[in-house]
Amino acid sequence: MAITMNVKQGGNGNFSEGWHKVTVKSARYGQLDNGAKYIDVFFNDYPDSFNMRMYAKTSKAGEEFAIANLFRFANAGIMEVADGANHGDKVVKIDDTATNLVEKTFWIYLYKNEEGYSRVLQRIAPDEFEGTLDTFTENDVNYWKERAEKYFAEWVKPNIGSTVAEKTDDVPF
């Protein structure tokens, strides 16, 4: 008797908790039934079943900032940079087409959920680079990593395993 089996290939990613430098393989936008918009980002060296879902978040001033910071920290889609109204501020125009993230690198923080599966924190850190908008040094990268770790410790970790985790800032519903 013959047996047919599908063996998934690809994905040699490291799923240990902590920071991992990744390169984007693909990205695509989506929207939940409740209207919440998000972008799914997939990484080289990880299986297609593993991704980071980042939900759009809007400031009180009406500007989307979560996905915009993803593009900023990936140095992706930066089209125009101009001086802002306040000294030192910048106004940036970003082409947020999902394919602009492909082949871009940044740091993700992995943690284990209540079932022991690895998840990607929605807060990322840039890799070191010099661009038209930002220059990120090793110190800058460490600063953003520390901010993400603080967010994880205060808002995500205490809610792992509870239904409250579904209602944190990480998931907008």
Explain this structure to me?
With 173 residues, the protein is an alpha+beta fold. The protein has one domain. Helices cover 16% and strands 31% of the residues. It contains 2 helices and 10 strands. The strands form 3 sheets. Strands 1, 2, 3, 6, 7 and 8 form a 6-stranded antiparallel sheet that branches. It has a two-stranded antiparallel ribbon with strand order 4-5. Strands 9-10 form a two-stranded antiparallel ribbon. Strand 4 and strand 5 form a beta hairpin. The longest helix is centred in the last third of the chain and has 19 residues. The protein is globular and about 75 Å long. It starts with 17 loop residues before the first strand and ends in a 17-residue tail after the last helix.
Indicate the radius of gyration in whole angstroms: 18 Å
For the secondary structure, the number of strands is: 10
Query: In which range does the helix fraction lie?
Result: 10-25%
Count up the helices: 2
State the major sheet: 6 strands, antiparallel
Average of the residue pLDDT scores = 91
Oligomer: single chain
Total domain modules: 1
Strand content: 25-35%
Shape: globular
Topology summary:
Elements: E1 18-31, E2 37-43, E3 51-55, H1 66-74, E4 78-83, E5 90-94, E6 105-112, E7 118-120, E8 125-126, E9 129-130, E10 135-136, H2 138-156
Antiparallel strand pairs: 1-2, 1-6, 2-3, 4-5, 6-7, 6-8, 9-10
Properties at a glance:
two-stranded antiparallel sheet; 6-stranded antiparallel beta sheet; 173 residues
